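Budget justification aside, the reviewers requested a transparent look at the raw inputs and outputs of the sequence design task funded under Objective 1. We therefore reproduce one unedited record. The lines immediately below are the structure tokens for a 231-residue chain.
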């Protein structure tokens, strides 16, 4: 692991010892560190608009390849999480009775306990139908105990697969949501329809994806240069 130059490894060990000796849980530790930052006035840097992290095509292909190599279900989980652009909590609650093969949609219970329908590709609908077989109720992706996965467990699975795929950047479920959102924008999806697809209440949340992306800048550059070659 690469540490920022300003971080002392000994300080990390001291903080870890305090947390361990005091018996703090993960959530308690996160709260404690958050409050400590507030106590000394540390604030996160504001992310510039248009700098949304996402996976590039090579990284995405590597992630899916590793997931499907692990198992068909693992691959389908990652593909579904990606192509639906769903929040991880909603993904965990996907239910068989809310999947329509005919309409090629999945109904999800999203923020504010509101239902919305997410369109899916025919190929994904076919794969989900084969996965569910004759099952018409219950979670689409039940845990080994037959219950729903927790968001924390899905985060762990995604990170495990990313490590196996040798992806250097930090990969987490919401990164897949950013990835599909930017993919749709780059291919011309109108802003108001992307807002509907992602379930954003405010259009301002969606607008971040409409800042000029590297792909669009590159395309415009090549088109301009090809019209009148520079050299």
């Amino acid at each position: 692991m690469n540490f920022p130059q300003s971080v002392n490894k000994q300080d990390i060990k001291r903080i870890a010892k305090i947390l361990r000796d005091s018996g703090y849980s993960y959530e308690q530790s996160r709260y404690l560190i958050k409050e400590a930052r507030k106590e000394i006035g540390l604030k996160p840097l504001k992310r510039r608009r248009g700098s949304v992290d996402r996976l590039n095509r090579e990284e995405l292909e590597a992630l899916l390849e590793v997931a499907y190599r692990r198992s068909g279900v693992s691959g389908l989980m990652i593909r579904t999480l990606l192509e639906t652009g769903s929040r991880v909590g909603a993904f965990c609650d996907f239910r068989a009775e809310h999947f329509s093969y005919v309409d090629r949609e999945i109904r999800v219970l999203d923020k504010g306990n509101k239902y919305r329908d997410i369109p899916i590709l025919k190929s994904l609908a076919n794969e989900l139908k084969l996965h569910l077989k004759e099952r018409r109720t219950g979670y689409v992706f039940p845990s080994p105990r037959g219950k729903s996965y927790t968001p924390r467990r899905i985060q762990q699975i995604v990170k495990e697969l990313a490590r196996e795929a040798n992806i250097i950047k930090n990969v987490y479920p919401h990164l897949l949501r950013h990835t599909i959102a930017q993919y749709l924008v780059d291919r011309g999806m109108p802003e108001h329809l992307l807002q509907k697809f992602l379930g954003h209440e405010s259009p301002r949340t969606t607008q971040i994806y409409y800042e000029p992306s590297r792909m669009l800048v590159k395309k415009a550059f090549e088109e301009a240069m090809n019209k009148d070659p520079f050299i």
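The mean pLDDT is 87. Residues 111 and 199 are 8 Å apart (CA to CA). Computational costs for records of this kind are itemized in the attached budget.
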